[in-house]
Write a structure and sequence with these properties.
The chain is an alpha+beta fold. 40% of the residues lie in helices and 18% in strands. It binds adenosine-5'-diphosphate and magnesium ion (MG).
Length: 359
């Protein structure tokens, strides 16, 4: 839990909740990754050597990741429960690190994590698979500077990506850095007033910002959970922020700031269409054991996908635990499914290695 991304506080809330959920049935060692990338590995396990109080367990002396992993192996850990969110935890790099070290972990594997974390890349894959997603483009790597040049550029984009616009980091989550613009004038003003230098920091990948057409309609999200290897769509949730113009950071993490209606008040056909779409998207990226697809039921009636999350929040009030509960799957069962998936994946990897060695 924790990690180096802007989502580290959200991840800690997920991690603390996961530790508590697992503690009765498993021997759990809470590990925080600090903002500087070092890992805090406490001695002992929850309940034996470590108190149940998160304040106490999150303060162990930090180690570099290689030494921390060695310490965890020495302690005999069986599986890493990945409660990280965002870059460095949800983008395939952490998964690659553990996979290369031969350590079992939960959540998405390398490719699903890497591709879905890159909103632009995921959009290309969705399009190629015939899934609707708002038109978009990556903002340039260099700030064109003056208001005049921003206006010229914005006018040319308008044909390809009709306004109103949303600007968002290409590879972040929790609505960090998301901004809305009613028209190109508002965009040009913001760009010239400093937005441009933030959006156009240059270099490919995580530094990039995406410009997207703003969708009008009802915002929905739909989870898919693999139960014994079979993907099953959970009840969709409708998201209605009470105070914000969209589902921003405040609306996501302030209790009561958003009405989250589960199951979403949709017709039976609409519900089925949303669930089929979420299940399809889950399959396209190979998101096992769990995904949450953010989408809109557009005013015109169509469904359009914003993005896919492979390590969604797992606090008691997070969207996936709510939807799972509605489907009759309590938190402890949800955690067990996620654990089993990670252990099974490692077993099948190990048996592939073993059979290769026999050949
Ligand atoms: N194209 C869009 N049209 C309308 N609302 C959007 C659009 N893109 C993002 N939003 C709003 O911003 C929120 C966060 O955007 P999203 O793409 O889901 O990124 P993340 O959740 O990873 O920060 C969404 O839940 C939605 O409320
Ligand atoms: Mg989202």
């Amino acid at each position: 839990m924790g990690g180096t991304s802007a989502e580290r506080e959200v991840s800690k809330a997920t991690g603390v909740n996961v530790c508590r959920g697992l503690a009765g049935r498993h021997t759990v060692k809470p590990v925080e990754i600090l903002a500087d990338g070092r890992w805090c590995v406490p001695d002992g396990f929850l309940g034996s050597g470590i108190s149940q109080d998160p304040e106490a367990w999150l303060g162990a002396a930090p180690l570099d990741p290689l030494r921390a992993l060695a310490a965890l192996r020495d302690a005999g850990i069986q599986v890493v429960f990945n409660a990280l969110h965002g870059p460095g935890g949800e983008d395939g790099s952490f998964q690659g690190f553990l996979r290369h070290a031969g350590v079992a972990f939960t959540g998405p594997d390398v490719t699903a994590a890497a591709v879905t974390m890159d909103k632009w890349l995921a959009k290309q894959v969705l399009r190629a698979s015939g899934v609707a997603t708002p038109s978009a483009r990556l903002l340039p790597g260099r700030d064109p500077g003056s208001e005049l040049s921003w206006r010229e550029i914005a006018a040319s984009w308008q044909r390809e990506v009709p306004a109103p616009w949303v600007v968002k980091p290409n590879a972040l989550g929790s609505s960090v850095g998301v901004e809305m613009f009613d028209g190109i004038e508002a965009f040009v003003c913001r760009a010239a007033a400093g937005g441009g230098s933030v959006w156009c920091r240059g270099g490919p990948g995580a530094g990039h910002f995406l410009l997207e057409s703003r969708v009008r309609g009802r915002e929905l999200t739909c989870g898919v959970l693999e139960l014994d290897g079979e993907p099953k769509a959970l009840p969709p949730i409708e998201i209605r922020p009470r105070e914000s113009a969209f589902f921003d950071y405040h609306a996501k993490y302030t209790p009561g700031a958003t009405e989250e209606i589960c199951p979403a008040p949709l017709t039976r056909d609409e519900t089925r269409a949303v669930q089929e779409l979420a299940q399809r998207v889950h399959g396209i990226f190979g998101c096992g054991p769990l995904s949450r697809t953010d989408l809109f039921l557009e005013t015109g009636g169509g469904l359009t996908v914003l993005e896919v999350n492979t390590l969604p929040g797992m606090t008691a009030t997070s969207l996936i635990p709510q939807a799972a509960a509605k489907a009759g799957i309590p938190m402890d069962e949800l955690l067990e499914e996620i654990l089993r998936h990670g252990l099974r994946r490692q077993e099948s990897r190990q048996s592939t290695v073993d059979s290769r060695q026999l050949e």
